[in-house]
Every structure is written in C-alpha cells, then in structure tokens.
Amino acid sequence: MLEPLRQGLPPLDPATVSAAASCALPARYEAVREARQFTRCTLGQWETGDRFDDVCLVVSELVTNALRHGLPANTPRIPGQEPPVRLHLMRWTERLVCAVRDPSHDSPVAREADDDFSAESGRGLFLVDSFADSWGWHPLAGMLSGKVVWALFRLHPEPGDRLADFAD
C-alpha cells in the first residue's frame, strides 16, 4: 500500500515564490473540470515545459479526492460562504507545487494499484504518486479546519530523475 507522507510542504522558501494562483471550488463534481481549466490557463502562463500534462492530471485527481472523500455527504453550497475546496498552485524557479485544501481531518488513503482495470475508482493517489515527484498531506492549523494534500513537481527534470530530497 502506498503510504501518504504526513508532512508539510517541502522546505521551499515562500519568499522565493515566483508565481502563485488559487481558486475556490464549489462542492460539485463539475469543479474538477473548472480546476483543470484554471490549471491549464495558469500553467500556460508559467512555462512549465514537459510537466504540463502531469500537473493537470494530478490536479484532477487531488480535486476529485477532495470532493469525493473530503466533504461530508450532501455538502450544500451556502451563499456568501467560501466554497469548501480550494486549489493552490505555486511556482518556484524549478519547482511547482499544487495543493488542494478540504474540510476533512481524515488522512488520504492510498490503495495499491491492481490489475483490475474494471474498478471505477481507487487509483487516484496511485496516479498522483506516479506522476508527481513527491506528495504528502498535512492538517491545517489555527483558524483553518481540514487538511491540505500537495504534490510537488520538478520542472525541467533530468530523464528518470525522481526528487529524492528537497534540498538543492
């Protein structure tokens, strides 16, 4: 079984973020399409090179998981209240982080991928693990409730190079 990393974002200096964008996502499955469109538009401006498709796929999986597992059943859209799921994209010179916040305190559960391709779900975090260089989650603190699940991508990586640690 894949074990999610319970840790905060990698030690990347927030002061060195070269670009950042975020969007609030409503509690409905159409929000996955909205998140993909937001990501495509944002990444199109950030020159992410060959990681474009990987990041879009991972964002889709993280948002789907937040909507499916991070919200109480039948979460209503309350006028004037911020939608319960939020997508954040942050770019450093050679790294990109996508983070999805949801109101659940439950840790993400990654299941082993199997050869049963007839299953309609259950492969999301396996895909995140396969396409991102690193991923993890952490509970929110202070006035914010819930958790953030994040994925880190090295931009312009060497072929076959997975991020072993976060130090440059």
Automatic annotation (TrEMBL):
Top-rank lineage group of the source organism: Bacteria
Swiss-Prot/TrEMBL keywords: ATP-binding, Kinase, Nucleotide-binding, Serine/threonine-protein kinase, Transferase
Gene Ontology molecular functions: ATP binding; protein serine/threonine kinase activity
A Pfam family that the UniProt record links to this protein: HATPase_c_2
Residue intervals of the Histidine kinase/HSP90-like ATPase domain: 25-135
Keyword Nucleus: no
Matches recorded under PANTHER family: ANTI-SIGMA-F FACTOR RSBW (PTHR35526:SF3), ANTI-SIGMA-F FACTOR RSBW-RELATED (PTHR35526)
Protein name as it appears in the record: ATP-binding protein
